[in-house]
Each structure stands twice: as C-alpha cells, then as structure tokens.
Amino acid sequence: xxxxTGLRVLWRAPGEVQIGTDARWAVRLTDLTRxxxxxxxxLLDGATLRGLTANARSLGMPPARLDALVTLLDxxxxxxxxxxxxxxxxxxxxxxxxxxxDAATWTRLLADSDGAALIAARGxxxxxxLGAGRLGLSMAVTLASAGVGSVLVEDDQPVSHADLGVGGxxxxxxxxxxxxxxxxxxxxxxxxxxxxAPGETRPDVMVLVEHGAADALRARVLMSAGVPHLSxxxxxxxxxxxxMVLPGVSACLRCLDLHRTDADEHWPAVAAQLAGxxxxxxxxxxxxxxxxxxxxxxxxxxxxxxxxxxxPRTLGxxxxxxxxxxxxxxxxxxxxxxxxxxxxxxxxxSVPRREHPAHDR
Length: 361
Description:
This protein is an alpha/beta fold and 361 residues long. Strand 9 (229-234) and strand 10 form a beta hairpin. The relative contact order is 0.12. The chain contains 11 helices and 12 strands. Helix 4 crosses helix 5 (115-122). The chain folds into 2 domains: 2-80, Outer Surface Protein A, domain 3 (Alpha-Beta Complex); 123-360, NAD(P)-binding Rossmann-like Domain (Rossmann fold), CATH 3.40.50.720.
C-alpha cells in the first residue's frame, strides 16, 4: 500500500494536523507527537507504507502506534494499492501534454487511484459536435484538453465577430467555416487531437448545440443508432445543458416535448418555430460570454462523465443556467409514458463504470 498522492498536510494546532482539503475525505489527526507530524508532512505524498515504516522506526515510534496511524489512514481511504510499475499501464509522462493535472486529480478520486489509465482511455473516445459557436467551441476545447482523442465538429457556418473570444476563435478566423477554424483551435490546444475521422466513424457521444428549442427530429438518427447524445439549448438569457439521452434507457428529446405539451397545449407550435428558425443550431446573434463559458464547461463535464463510465447528472435531467445569477439549477425530466422511447431496441455505447471513493464517504 502507499499513501494517496496530492493531499495537503496542514498544521492545525500543537499535536494536530489536517490531511486533505476536500470535505469528502479531509480528516484531522490529533494527539500526535512532533516526530509523527514530521513523518506525515514529509512522507504523505505518494509514500509507500514500507517507507513510512522505515522512517517511523528511525524516529523510535512504537510499532503499535505506527499500526494505529496506518489503520486510521486506511479507514479514511487515504491509502491505495501499490502494485509497482506495470508495463501495460500508462504513466503520467506518457499522457498527452497538459493532461497531467487531470490525471493527478482523478488519482485522488478513483478507488483504484489510476488517474493515468482513465485519461489514457479518453484518447480512444470520439465526441461529435453539431453547432460550434462560442459555447460549442468552449466545450470542444475543454474535451480536447482533457485528453479526448477525437473531437469532430460539424458546422460550416462562417466565423463571425459574435463568435470571437470565448472558446478560442480569433480575428484571423473571421469568414472561415467554423469546422476548419475549430480544427485549428483544437490542434493548437491539444496537438494530438484528431479533428477528422472516416465517414463511418460512430461517436461515443454526440452533442447538439441549438438555439431556442431542441429539435427532437434532428436526434432521431441518433436514437435509431443507439448513440448517446447531449442536448444543449441556448435561449434568450439562459442555457440548458441536458438531458443526456441514452437511447432505450433514459428520457429522450421527444419526452421533453410531450411533457411541455402536457403543460402547454400550444408548445408544439412554439417549438416548431424556434427549432426551425434560420440559424437555429448556431444563431448569428451570438452567445453571451458567461453563458457560453459556463454552458461549455458543464456540457464538457457531462460528456466526460459518460465517456469515463460515471452516470452523468443530466441523465433524465437538465442543468439550467440563467443570467444574472448564472448558478446551475437541476430540472428532472422522466421518461414520458406516451413516448415509448425506452421500449426501442438499441445498442448503447458505454464504458465500464469507474468507482469513486469519495462517493462512499
């Protein structure tokens, strides 16, 4: 066993230290001697328990006291298996440039402490994106920076002044198709990312960025193919991230339309006008800066959860972010009884669930 990496050891008072700062696993150890505090401070970050034992002996710590300390660390889930070097497992040095912080953070979160393996697995994943305005590009940049191997942008509208800033478009991109400009931005951020793929490539997740209202008809091909897809809708002064649709399992976009029709019988007429408006996938008016940044980050987080095998919070739900507060609010969207989407045959694209020790604390 070894001690989990990246945790701060903070002095609190004579004989007392705090290990970690995240409320899900931070612990206090009290009644410590000065030597014990020095031992923890010097050896906590990734030290093996064998090394801890050797140093404890040199300080004259009684074996029973050391056993009690190690037991406390283990109960607090501050330890992880030390299996030694494994040729089949990637190291942080072998990961794409810039993903080291991601791997380090996930090492603290995962039960197996193998953040490097999680980031490496993302390299084999493909995410498609329809609608690459400010919000869409912000999301794409985040995914590429987090190690997703293929980010495929579908948007041939020209880059306008309204697209500049958030996400990465610059004045040099003005007038160029968003697909081409986005590929350049992504390559600059993550040189190893793939922005093109063979025509038959099936994305692990597809993201639909639309304006006004989601178009359930546009998602029908994804439903038929069993491709998980995330809806993102930019409205007049808010953005809606979700739901993440797992065909045959969770509520689909038609379910949302049926729920809204139950509440407002005229919703279909309104939705048809919103979804069918010119530029509805990426309006020329542009996307407000804060909503684009927050919406893009939230969307990226939901996509990564699906890719990593953790149920996204937007499964059967949506995160609504409205100005001026810009604080996400969760709205649940259950399967509608008249839709029938969960009775459709389909093949889900998924990966094994990764366990997070923080969930059990």
